[in-house]
Amino acid sequence: MKALLLVDIQNGFCPGGNLPVLEGHEVVPVANRLIESGKYDLIVASQDWHPEDHGSFASSHPDKVPFELGTLSGKPQMMWPDHCVQGTEDAELHPHLKIEAIDLIIQKGLNRSVDSYSAFRDNDRDAHTGLAAYLKDQDITDLDVCGLATDYCVKFSALDALEMMPGVQVRFIEDASRGITPDGVAAAIDEMRQKGIAIITSEQAMSD
């Protein structure tokens, strides 16, 4: 059983959003081709879904500005612009994404006191979203991961999948993903590769 995980392909991370990833919208047609390929038994997606006063927002800290390092619940935290606030257009999945084909949408980042990059659990690694249990219940043996952004939510989702679902083959689809900085993307890909995650293209994914 093979699954595709689409990480945070939301308006907020595309051009015009509150935390845009360069060329983020370009992952949408690639993701749609993967969805339509017929290669996957299950399609799942994650969605950042923050309360408006989330602690990772620079606006929640009078002495901080976006993209400055701060702390949240005593741990180092990148301070972000307000983004993907619950119920706003910024938080919606991209309108051109074939949402009707998605079997499950996991919402994350609801806890004001901890950020949640991974689709599987919060950054404190204690609160789980239920995605790992769901995929195990569906007898998933292979998981392809892609989306936004490579150097944050995609990387952490792929690494958590590897750790939380032993025996499942995890692959990262590079051309169906975009990152925040070139250096960050390169480091994320290197880290995933070193941990045993295969780095593939969408064409490879669809030709298997």
Automatic annotation (TrEMBL):
GO terms for molecular function: metal ion binding; nicotinamidase activity. InterPro entries: Isochorismatase-like_dom, Isochorismatase-like_sf, Isochorismatase_Nicotinamidase. It comes from the Bacteria. One of its GO terms (biological process) is pyridine nucleotide biosynthetic process. Its EC number is 3.5.1.19. Gene3D superfamilies: Isochorismatase-like. Pfam families: Isochorismatase (PF00857). It is an enzyme of class 3 (hydrolase). Keywords: Hydrolase, Metal-binding, Pyridine nucleotide biosynthesis. Pathway: Cofactor biosynthesis; nicotinate biosynthesis; nicotinate from nicotinamide: step 1/1. Residues 3-204 form the Isochorismatase-like domain. PANTHER family: LD05707P, PYRAZINAMIDASE/NICOTINAMIDASE. Belongs to the isochorismatase family. NCBIfam families: PRK11609.1. This is Nicotinamidase. It comes from Rhizobium grahamii. The lineage of its organism: Bacteria, Pseudomonadati, Pseudomonadota, Alphaproteobacteria, Hyphomicrobiales.
